[in-house]
Amino acid sequence: MITAPWLADVRYDERGLIPCIVQDSFTGEVLMHAWMNADSLQRTLETGDTWFWSRSRSELWHKGATSGSTQKVVSLHLDCDGDTLLALVQQVPGYGACHTGAPTCFDPATGFSTDTPDSGRPILAQLMRIVESRDLLRPPDSYTTKLLIGGVDRAGKKVVEEAGEVVIAAKNAQAGAGHDELANESADLLFHLIVLWRAAGIDHALIDQALRKRR
């Protein structure tokens, strides 16, 4: 059994449960909400995968044991009151975080928003979802589709081009031209980099791991 000082601060409710919010460690997107008890929390710590307590079935469940879409825990956090957990995870490829097969339990993103339905999602997650959708559906009039059809060569050429434009924009900003150009060119570079990732078929969890090594 794993023991740690913070576990003594976990405040379970009268049913012996504590809510756990699951968030993608790379994009910051909220994937799902579920419940843990002391046993499922302990199994999560021991295995490195998320385990929860099913209130409807009154049993422990290993996330992804049936669907194949497991969650590797990057870190686990207890809030200031001790009554909510936050799990930052790498969603292993499969059928998505939601039991419906959707990438998250908040997809489609319905509800109140002061902007667009997706405005509550981190922009990186939004862009990655859009590029993924373009790759799966391949709408013929889409610029992203044309890039993906061209594969790594075409997407890579655009990344090199956009990187050069970012540097030029940075020099212009340094010379007093303001930062709008740099912001726009940086956004273009990030978008084309995401397309390149998709064209190369890389799992973003690997990028997450590489970034954490450099932290």
Write the layout of secondary structure elements.
Blueprint: E1 18-24, E2 30-36, H1 38-47, E3 51-54, E4 59-62, E5 71-78, E6 85-91, H2 123-137, H3 143-177, H4 180-200, H5 204-214
Parallel strand pairs: 1-6
Antiparallel strand pairs: 1-2, 3-4, 5-6
Short description:
The chain is α+β, with helices and mostly antiparallel strands.
Could you name the key traits of this structure?
four-stranded mixed sheet, alpha+beta, Ubiquitin-like (UB roll), elongated, 215 residues, Helix Hairpins, 2 domains, two-stranded antiparallel ribbon
Molecular structure report:
With 215 residues, the chain is α+β, with helices and mostly antiparallel strands. It folds into two domains: 5-91, Phosphoribosyl-AMP cyclohydrolase (Ubiquitin-like (UB roll)); 123-214, MazG-like (Helix Hairpins, Orthogonal Bundle). It has helices spanning 38-47, 123-137, 143-177, 180-200, 204-214; strands at 18-24, 30-36, 51-54, 59-62, 71-78, 85-91. The strands form two sheets. The chain has a four-stranded mixed beta sheet with strand order 2-1-6-5, covered by helices on one side. The protein has a two-stranded antiparallel sheet with strand order 3-4. Helix 3 runs antiparallel to helix 4. The longest helix is centred in the last third of the chain and has 35 residues, at 143-177. It starts with 17 loop residues before the first strand and ends with a helix.
